[in-house]
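Lecture 7 notes. Example A: sequence first, then its structure tokens.
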Amino acid sequence: MHRHIYFIGICGTAMASLAGMLKSQGYEVTGSDAAAYPPMSDLLRELGIQVHEPYSERNLDRRPDLVIVGNAISRGNVELERVMDERIPFCSMASILHDEFLLGREPLVVAGTHGKTTTTSMLAWIYEVASQQAPELAPSFLIGGVAENFGTSFMVRPTKPFILEGDEYDTAFFDKGPKFLHYFPDSAILTHVEFDHADIYADLAAVKTAFKRFINLIPRRGRLVAYDASENVSECIAKAFCTVERYGFREDSHWRITGLRHEGQKACWTLWRAGERFARLSLPMAGEHNALNATAAAALAAGQGIAVEAIVQALASFHSVKRRLEVKAVAEGITIIDDFAHHPTAIRETLRALREIYPGQRLIAVLEPRSNTLRRNVFERDLIESLAVADRVVLAGVFKSESIPVAERLEPEHVVRGLQQRGVLAELHAHADAIVAALVPQLRDGDIVAILSNGGFGDIYRKLPRAITETAIAGRLSGRLA
């Protein structure tokens, strides 16, 4: 048994969660990262896992027994170079996850370009509720975010079900295949297939190839629940050896949604199974995309034998995932929402959901182009169309733009101009502090501000509400002094 395991790049969502899983099994776990930010920095601190910042060869002076190399780490990283020079044993996050936790269990994997984290969280919560009557169903899980029903992104139990988010991103600098090819699912969900991760996939065809290989790992006895309104999904599942059940709004789908309606932050719909009424479902989350996520989770759970009563109860009591339409603050009547935006489609669905939740209120989108997809110009037109759902848009400069070739780099000025041509108020500011300074004087009571980023965004989540409050206090004091 490896006594001391060290993580290079420990603050990534999956890496931090795996670190916690290994610590729960009795390993000593430490690690390092360039910078830590919530929620994973909070998780690691709560777990008592030491995190070194920044990377340094000295962090490895106490030689670990095994090093886990994150997929964001490449040759030239000073810690990785020392590991290789000294031949310290190393492996990827995905491979140790398989070897330590998935062997001998029943892996249920949620894959797709969008909706993985929320759908995985829903499926895990359904199993958790079902385990109240059947303890053998208590799930282990690994989720790419903090599931609020559990207050954590992972759980390890001795039972068979292991529910995990299947990431199509590459595994490590020495293993360029997708992480989900290490997971060997018994059954799976496929939500969407779109071009994404433009830094590692050349085109949509390459993305589809990855998903086809994933589906080819499902055994004949398994089940695949797949979204019904995507030609890309249809192509990827065409040669599946397992049972395939489609879900969505189509009349001919095995799992069909009808009567979807929104009541504030709540969604309700009727779910049909093979033409027969399955259940009336409710979810305390708005948005068509969330109803689809919940339907996928319900479908897979039902196919695995989970009782309909447990499914209904679980979805009605589901509490979302941190950084998914999360209300971070309400300051002076202004609501500030945090969402983990990484792709134009996700941005569009987030803004549409906010329109459902806050009808008639002014919606302001504040976007940091930070993901490897959004930092590139391949999605410039799609990004403009998605952001146009908002009433006003504020863009930050491209995160670490110097690392993207000029010919491939997103030009935020083009996005701003495109939005303005569509009649949307749009502006560009270099960083979070400049955005806060420019935006606060424009805000008014009742505004909804959606902050869209898959990173720390210069701590804007704290700076903006603080500045709003300070400005309001200063205004009130000024009025009294006058």
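Example B, a different protein, same format:
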Amino acid sequence: MLISPVVLTSPEGENVLNELIDRFQAADSTCRQSVTEILEAVKNSKDEAVLSYGRKFDAPNLTVEHLQVSSEELQKAYELVDDEFLDTLGRAIERIQTFHEREMEDSWLQTREDGTIVGRLVRPVDSAGLYVPGGKGGSTPLVSSVLMNGIPAGIAGVNQRVMVTPPAEDGSVSPHLLVAAQEIGITEIYKAGSAWAIAALAYGTETIPKADVIVGPGNQYVTEAKRQVSGMVRIDMIAGPSEVLIVADKTASAASVAADMLAQAEHDPLALAILVTTHEPLAGLVLAELERQLPQLSRQEIARTSLEDRGVMLIAKDLEEAIEVANGIAIEHLELMIEDPWAQLPHIRHAGAIFLGSNTPEAAGDYFAGPNHVLPTMGTARFASALGVETFLKKSSIISYSKGALAADGEHIMRLARLEGLSAHANSVAVRLGK
């Protein structure tokens, strides 16, 4: 049996739930020292190190002259994609752009009668680095990563958006990636992958500019590199394996539930697919559907391993219990395949993205619906949000006092400063007030 269903209230069910709630894991430590060495090499040797790693692991003939994608390569890319792709790409861009435009924040001011002005100034960072994985040597280009990371940065007003992606063995980059980048206004693209690409964005090289924010998915080396440079630059998040939790009642289609569990499982052997159902017979029907659909998949072995090793089916006594379990797990993708999903939406406290109704597969959110697919994993949806325009914005406080306002507040400011033992702070007010 792929997955053994368990009742939530049983001892086994309680153990499974506790493990799910406590599933956070730090970045893979097995590559930590290797990544540290790569970061140090790029910091010190810059282009030379980036090219050395690139030649060793990606394109043996990579040269500094070809480290940046040329204008000729950018133009040629349009000749290598078809009109159907361009049509789909344009529609996806429009959806993602329209959604994220609502996220843009405005600067604001508050004025007081005594002449004090306070507020917040919202400004974009100067530069953003977008990491896009190679996708099996360019054969499975992750176009959605270009859009989901690049569009919010553009809306934020980031002046310099730089994309890095590992080249194929012949030094080329997928034309689908190049076209997608150009369609959202990104033309500065470099052929660098893995930890050395993150290092180049963090420290800057003779060719690749330094970024203030680094975003984008990747393998354990990319994730560890982002973790190590975090603090010096902003990163989107430390992401764990992708995950879905489906809450289903008796109205749910077993075929749809199984299809969505498989869609999650095919990502990675460590992907997490969970079903919480209030209708016990559904679990058996879903298991049968999983076995029926698995042989049809191109990545069936990955999906099978994921379900056998990490798949979960929990039987809840009622919808209230199922929703509370979902809140406790704080999943990346939460699907509500129930009779009235909108009635339960007010009760959802923790989820990266919420998919309502049986006609809303997670894949719609991954590619086309509009909201961002870069989401918190491993339970971090308790406090973290999806990547968005705000990822590329910073806020500065604005403070302006009139002479009268400082006179009115001065004693209070000095009192708190002296209480903290900071006499110079107090004196900076006193000298202005002639005290």
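Note on Example B: The mean pLDDT is 96. The CA atoms of residues 2 and 117 lie 63 Å apart.
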